Amino acid sequence: MRRLPHWASRFVPRTVRARATAAAGTVLAAALALAGAGLLAAVHAELVASAASATRQQADSVAQLALQGRLPAVLHTGHGTDFLQVVDARGTVLAASPNLAGRAALATEPRTGSLTTDQVDPLYDHHRQRLTVVAADTPGGPVTVYAGASLRAADEAMDITQAGLAVACPLLLLTGVVVTWKVTGQALRPVEAIRAEVDAITGQDLHRRVPEPGTADEIARLAATMNAMLDRLEASGRRQRQFIADASHELRSPLAVLRTQLEVADTHPDQAVRAELVHGALADTDRLQNLATDLLLLARLDAGGADERPRQRIDLTDLVATTVPARPFGPHRRTTDLAPDVTVEGIPLWLGRLLTNLLDNAERHAAGTVHVRLSTDPARGLALLDVEDDGPGIPPADRERVFERFTRLDDARSRDHGGTGLGLSIARDIARHHHGTLTVTPSAAGARLTAAIPLAADPAADA
Q: What is the pTM of this model?
């Protein structure tokens, strides 16, 4: 439409309904035109062929009589033949049908065959004639037999057919256009209902859904897809609101405690008490700093920040072997069982954060031992990182809930140990951004969390 002149673009249909109707009308008009032309050609060919066959048979019969010397002076026409005439080489009429009695020889070339002509009109009916010319050698010399038939009936049949087509084709075209307009409008009515409903949905109305027609067609699938998208948007909005509420609560509590400690420390006369209060304020500040860091990291993960950072090949064995011993000494014994040369593709800083969060969680709940195992699953092309503790374990009903944000199965102990309830949620998001998974897997005692990360492709195999 942009390439059309301004005045011409106004005549181009702009709606889907109008374009579909125009296209259907154009195709139907072309089909009717071709069908009408084919019908007229077939009727004309059939009528002319019938006339040619009849005149040919009559001309052959008269030629046989001439060859046998039994040519009568008056020839009687048969079915499908209107006139007959036999002329010798000098142009003398030897025999003729009664309607050509006394007439001169037909002014045609003396050649055999059949032709349709309007130059010969012996009956004066102003119609074309189908004329068959047959030459014969008789005992009295060569003669030419003319057998003809008027195509008046054929012309009348063509006129009737043309008149019928002139009436029927526009009616059929109009019927097709009207039916297409109605059917297209009915088919697009659910689309308009979907559009109107989506247009009315705002950020506060994500609970609304578009109407789904009871048909199993493309529009029904479109409506189902739209509703599924609205489900995801509503769930995302609900999670975001819950996340904001939880974050506000998590920030409010340490801020209130920190303010109270600083106010008391500012007014308390005892220096020892003031030092203790300042020490507690510093601990709460650290907790606030950790919480802010976790919230910023979650925001980056939600915004797809991991996809924007360059990936590189990482020796996961070396990353685990250096991260575990580098952690501050604690009351728990740490053991490792690492497969050699396990390589993945990803972001080293974030994979290190994943391992750190798993170790923090394990040490928070372990009774005495934390075990880290790194292995591979060549059949699935995965690196498996297991972090297991010998603590009380995770009940089956809570094995998915522990990955929700701000979830603590033991709030009091988690707060005392500095937990924000975001560690496992961040670890799972990091695993997902590396096209992997993080799940709670069955363990004989305690809890075991398994991160499955795709192995890096072998450069030698790619080469």
A: 0.53
